[in-house]
Give the backbone structure.
Amino acid sequence: MSSQDAERRELERVVELLGRNTRPGRLLAYVGAKYFEPQAEQLTEFTIATEVFGRSAKDFDPTQDAVVRVETHRLRKKLRELYEKDGDTHDLQICLPAGSYVPKFVAAPEQEAAKSPTGQADADAAQSATTRRKALYFTSIAGAIGAIALAVVLLDGFRSAQSPPPAATASLVEAPTIAETGAKLSEVHVMAGYSGSEVIDNSGVRWTPDRFFTGGGPWALDRGFIRGTSRPFLFANWRAGEFSYDIPLERGTYELRLFFVSPHRVGDEKLASFDVALNGKPLLTAYDVNVSARGADVADEKVFKDVRPDEDGFVRLRFTNQIGTPAVSALELAPGTPRKLKPIRIITQPTSYVDHKGRRWRADDYFFNGFRSTERHTVSGTDDPELFSAERYGHFSYAIPVDTRGRYTVVLHFAEFYFGPQRLGGGGAGSRVFNVFCNGKTLLENFDVYKEGGSLRLVTKTFTNIKPSAQGKINLTFEPVVNNATISGIEILDESA
């Protein structure tokens, strides 16, 4: 029997044990089928939600509906319980690595030798066991001494005098490897501390397992929802300790993005600052994610423009202790523009969109609170009527990360979907009024979308010379005055020459 036949047989057997009509059984059958087709790259939260659990492809919002993450957690638990109970009858075992929906087939661990059915060992076996124990006694002493020495070395390397973050649990990943030194790359998207399969996000970016690192160790997040991101998988793991990344890149200009989340639980935050250096020069000094993100359950992203490889063709990142232990969840190096941050364009939809000019608008991200509409409307006054066909509404905010060096133009796109004589809400002028603030300053006061453009017509407002916050954010707050505030699209444009 080939290895793939054995895997198929194990899959079929476990699906039957779980029950083909149960949610865990259906989920395992689906991911297994994609694995064998092979179409593992299609195993995303969106495809599983729509094809396994019947969610609408038009309306599914992973930030509001956690069905896939919940059911995947249940499946992992069911698999663990099944193999703990009957593992000795399975030559192969199926697992779903943390942060991935692609199954892995691993050899079953060896079982302990069967005990004597009578409960009595014969004299020869007992004597042999005694002899072996004596030999193992001295071997164990030597092993213990070696283990103690190794622990001292590891602790010395960590040099933080702190225990691993209490919220973390060790991730089952391979030992760190030396930074790769192969062909130079044009871009890099890495999930730190993660060893599973690649993941494609809601804007089509392909994220790889951890690589190019030296030092530190992998950890897995063991708590629930992370706010301020539509890509929670980026924050499911991290690399912690003192460590470095040596990334081989082609000559050119890049944008660097570093992704962080606090290692502490909500209510148990501590000062935890550390330093980050880029090619030997300070990049972040006394950075504390608890301060920068303003919450232990909030994603934080740091952006740096105009990054270039060193003379040897590597971008070198070094994370070192200060008060706390360094930790990073993901890092990205993408082609950039000299001295200028590339435009950030966001639409209030669950997937990205390419407009008629070939510009990619990212899926809704960086938001806090509010609701995203599930209906789609055709909007006039634009060459892309589907681009602004949805909205985020309510009382909400966005914290969009940018490079702190520079000033920015903020472009806000609105449309009135609900109010108007021919619309469901009726009314008209005065039916929806709200304020918009940016980094503490008023951009729009008592703003009325209908009064500006009527129903189903794009209204665009542009604001220049916007200074980012000290934490590198364009903080936009939408405050209702009469009924809900609304937004359909946001652009952030670097004004640097």
